[in-house]
Amino acid sequence: MLSRAAPWSPSRSRGAAAAVRRLGDADTRALSELAAADPVANVFIAAHLAAHGTAAPTAAGAEVLGAFDGDGQLASACWLGANIVPIEVPAEHAPLYAASIRSSRRRFASIFGPAKATLAIFAELHGPAARDVRPDQPLLVLDGPPAVPADPLVRVTTLDDFAALAPACVSMFEEEVGYSPVAGGSENYYRRVRQLITAGHSFARFGARGEVMFKAELGSVTAAATQVQGVWVDPLHRGTGLSHGGMAAVVDHARRIAPVVSLYVNDYNHRARAAYRTVGFEQVGTFATVLF
Predict the structure, then answer these.
(1) For the segment 211-237, what is each residue's pLDDT rounded down to a tens digit?
(2) Model confidence pLDDT, tens digit, residues 51-90
(3) Entry pTM
């Protein structure tokens, strides 16, 4: 497995960081090069750069912090938005980011990313209690055709499908995270669902009554890699193998965009992990998620 990971994880020499600061437009190229060190693990920030074209703060207030070495070179970075996402962060940089995060007085829904960096930053925050810590989430990739036939009934969704998709998306989120994403208001969550549909990054199989039987989305998309999220099978159809053909169809669609398809999964979700192995995914790393 490690040899398969090598093309996406070239070694990078980073010395001790001398300072952490907010990145601006002038840092865009440096951040892009940093993300390119591992296009799979860093697909979130690479997709953001592809969409917005700048490392500068967004209109919504998200920003990227960067740690610079003694030569003034960007050595690592950390996204601060609704979530905290480390980018090529070695453990020794975690205290610097944690100090900046504490001083920002922001509230975050989660920290997610490569396990060592995610858990190191969380340990250095010394404050917010976690609702759940998931320290072992295998990062999986498939860089070729799926090992099983694709379900021909899985298709790209349209906005006409929104009424059927929305309840399935909410159900998936509740199962995965433990609370409803629309409990405090549905506008933001449903906007995101519509964005994924409009982008052509939402896929589903529908039953005879128009109900969603299987669904998944591409949460992050670049020219190098995509990351699948929100995989869900209607409980009435679980255990039937529906996810095998469904995921194979998603892979076929995703590989028209980028050559590598990735996702990460909870280590304890044995059924999902077995399904992904059947489709042909292999582990190349480990993510972690801390939920607040």
Answers:
(1) 999 999 999 999 999 999 999 999 999
(2) 999 999 999 899 999 999 988 899 999 999 999 999 999 9
(3) 0.90
pLDDT single digits (tens) 133-159: 999 999 999 999 999 999 999 999 999
> Which position has the token pair 């995965």?
176
- Containing domain of residue 151, as a range? 142-287
Residue 80 forms part of a structural domain: yes
Domain tally, the chain = 2
CATH code for the domain of 166: 3.40.630.30
Q: Is 245 exposed, middle or buried (0-12, 13-18, 19+ CB in 10 A)?
A: buried
Same domain for 36 and 160, yes or no, is no
Last residue of some domain: 128, 152, 185?
Answer: 128
